[in-house]
Design goal:
By secondary structure, this protein is mainly beta. It is 7% helix and 44% strand. It is built from 5 helices and 58 strands. The radius of gyration is 30 Å and the shape is elongated.
Length: 685
């Protein structure tokens, strides 16, 4: 099985839970469900998190009052409190209200089974030897921030005793469950290592927290849960994190709050699963995204990364070792590494996402399901990447220096089996699109599947690439389109169309000359009804159009240039009228997939010309007349030559060969690959 971490996905139609699965069939069925629903995620949170008495702020009753003054403390003689040489030790459960200032330390070492509650009401605690607040022993520790109060705690830059791993290493350090609540302010200075740390669970239900830390700012070993509050973090390493990787531990659950996180490492990191149902997040990690993003595109580069990451450095915005499930929230992430990353699965069904990154926008090692939300990935290496990806809804504006959307199993080995419907693979890399509106601007492949693509709904617009060694649509196995609108404009060298078993018609037009960015391509039927009117954002020489309005046996006219009075969205015009263009050709849609050039219909291309690594099948393509005719050229090569071609393309994908070097190597094998003039390339965004 490819998936070690599985989490529940909601099905509106069945009102039941589905599990992430491995097969293509299960993925397609899952993609048609609504996943995950708010109530399902809340149920998952409830299974790992319980809020108990004292977690929410409660009115103060029967409290002991402690007034701090430098190295002195004033409290009732009956209080279960000890004070010695600047250390205030609380020995029993109850409520203790602290005010004033202390040059020393507050220690909780309770000898009973009752919770200990510290109410900070205008207090400053500065330790010169260790933690400012140290929970040595308690049934449960609660820190309440009194309304209108301003509080500060800071630990020493160097601790006097650091031999024992259980010794404190944070300004506020607890060996027991720790809860922070209230509405007051708390400034935490972690001068030695961490800001606030609990060796068990850490819950925050309120308060205005500002935390600075040499290492991690906010850490719970078993759990971090935030229900409300304002949290501002500046951390040398991670902002918020859990560390326990044992079963049913290490979860992060964020249900609300406002977050401003600047982290040298990861903004939020979970050692297990993470659930987010709300909140506003502004995260900068690893110094933010580079000014220009690296690329593996073989043509003129769109910039190179200005940061270099070591093997043990992680600078991601949101990161989970397990599954990440998000149903809502507002996210602004600027990260050197992936903006959103899961070593398991990702499921997003809502939220507003504004992401800039030097690596992937949203990455899942296993499965990714996107149901809803607004996604603006303004800068990335690859915008969306997973082993299997299902897009069911939402609005997406994606910019990538390499592939816009990529599905790949990476190092996972799959076995191919012959079925009645053809070949199929378990755990095959699969891109499924059932809904949503996507605009993709790619320096590499627009839609790249190292497996198959299945589209049944939605609108997808692809701009790019501009180099002939990449393709606006690139897949290895099959591409079936049975619904939705897909327009992909880019270079002509690696152009591909759908597989022969698609039920929705498509046309692929290859122009004799490169069309400038912003030039309309307009397709209409014999009655003058618009099928598609699209002005790509980049130069293009080939365009793929598949629409429910295209029907076999009907006549169509394709024009370029001109203008439209329709409503424009990401270059797509709807409604209005078209005028002023130049008619290129009229034709009859004779087959489901029709290939065109300026002379008319060309012979049918192979099922997926350009398939394979880097699109090897189109290596002999004719830029003037569209893709090669007849059989796939790779299938015509002898075994030795085919292996050499695959090696050249693998080096091209890895960036160890330039496009010119690959072209020369191909020429030595007798394979001519067209090149795009360097002056026609489009610079980085």
């Amino acid at each position: 099985m490819i998936h070690k971490n599985m989490f529940k996905m909601a099905s509106v139609a069945l009102s039941a839970s589905l599990l992430f699965a491995c097969s293509n069939t299960d993925l397609e069925e899952t993609a048609e469900a609504s996943s995950p629903a708010q109530e399902i995620v809340e149920s998952e949170i409830d299974s790992v998190l319980t809020y108990t008495a004292g977690d929410e702020y409660e009115e103060i009753e029967n409290a002991e009052t402690i007034e701090l003054s430098g190295t002195e403390a004033d409290y009732a003689s009956s209080a279960a409190v000890l004070f010695d040489e600047g250390t205030l030790t609380i020995k029993a459960g109850g409520t203790y209200v602290l005010s004033g200032s202390l040059d020393g330390q507050v220690v909780i070492d309770s000898e009973d089974d009752n919770p200990v509650r510290l109410v900070l009401d205008g207090v400053s605690i500065q330790s010169s030897e260790s933690s400012a607040i140290f929970v040595e022993k308690a049934e449960k520790a609660i820190i309440s921030l009194e309304e209108g109060s301003e509080n500060r705690v800071a630990d020493a830059a160097n601790y006097s005793d650091t031999d024992d791993s259980d010794e404190p290493n944070a300004a506020i350090f607890s060996k027991s469950d720790l809860t922070i609540n209230g509405t007051g302010q708390l400034v935490v200075e972690g001068n030695y290592n961490n800001g606030i740390a609990s060796k068990d669970s850490l819950k925050i239900t309120g308060g205005d927290l500002t935390i600075s830390a040499v290492d991690d700012a906010l850490m719970g070993r078993d759990l971090v849960a935030v229900k409300d509050g304002s949290i501002t973090i500046e951390a040398g390493d991670d902002g918020i994190k859990t560390t326990n990787d044992e079963e049913n531990t290490g979860t992060i659950a964020l249900e609300g709050g406002t977050y401003s996180i600047v982290a040298g490492g990861d903004g939020i990191q979970s050692s297990a699963d993470a659930y987010i149902t709300g909140g506003d997040y502004a995260i900068t990690s690893g110094g933010g995204s580079p000014e220009t993003v690296k690329t593996n595109s073989p043509g003129p580069t769109q910039g190179t990364a200005t940061t270099e990451e070591t093997d043990d450095t992680s600078a991601k915005g949101l990161k989970t070792e397990g599954a990440l499930s998000v149903t809502g929230g507002s996210f602004t992430v600027d990260s050197a590494d992936d903006a959103v990353h899961s070593n398991g699965d990702v499921a997003i069904s809502g939220g507003e996402w504004n992401l800039s990154t030097g690596e992937d926008g949203i990455h899942a090692d296993q499965m990714m399901v996107l149901d809803d939300g607004t996604f603006d990935i303004a800068k990335s290496y690859e915008a969306l990447e997973a082993a299997q990806l299902a897009i069911n809804g939402g609005e997406y504006t994606l910019w990538a220096s390499d592939d816009g959307i990529n599905v790949s199993n990476g190092s996972v080995t799959t076995e191919t089996a012959e079925t009645e419907e053809g070949s199929a693979t378990s755990d095959e890399a699969l891109l499924t699109i059932t809904g949503g509106f996507l605009s993709v601007d790619a320096g590499g492949d627009g839609l790249d599947a190292n497996g198959s693509i299945n589209m049944t709904g939605g609108t997808v617009l692809v701009n790019g690439p501009v180099t002939d060694m990449e393709g606006s649509i690139d897949y290895d196995n099959t591409f079936t389109q049975d619904g939705g609108l897909l327009i992909a404009a880019g270079s002509s060298g690696m152009v591909q169309s759908t597989s022969e078993d698609s039920t929705q018609s498509a046309v692929v037009m290859t122009f004799p000359d490169i069309q400038e960015a912003g030039t309309l391509t307009h397709l209409e039927d014999s009655a003058g009804n618009t099928v598609a009117s699209f002005a790509p954002q980049k130069d293009y020489q080939a365009i793929y159009i598949s629409s429910p309005d295209l029907q076999v046996g009907s006549s169509y006219t394709l024009s370029v240039g001109g203008s439209s009075t329709g409503e424009e969205t990401e270059g797509l015009f709807t409604g209005g009228s078209y005028e002023g263009g130049t008619e290129v050709l009229s034709f009859v849609q004779e087959e489901t997939a029709t290939w065109l050039n300026e002379d008319g219909i060309t012979e049918a291309a192979p099922e997926h010309a350009g398939g394979g690594a880097g699109g090897a099948g189109a290596a002999g393509g004719d830029r003037q007349g569209g893709p090669p005719q007849g059989a796939n050229p790779m299938e015509q090569l002898d075994e030795e030559t085919a292996l050499q071609v695959e090696e050249i393309l693998a080096q091209l994908e890895a960036g160890t060969l330039t496009e010119e070097q690959a072209q020369a190597a191909m020429a030595e094998l007798g394979i001519e690959v067209p090149m795009r003039p360097a002056e026609d390339t489009v610079p980085a965004q």
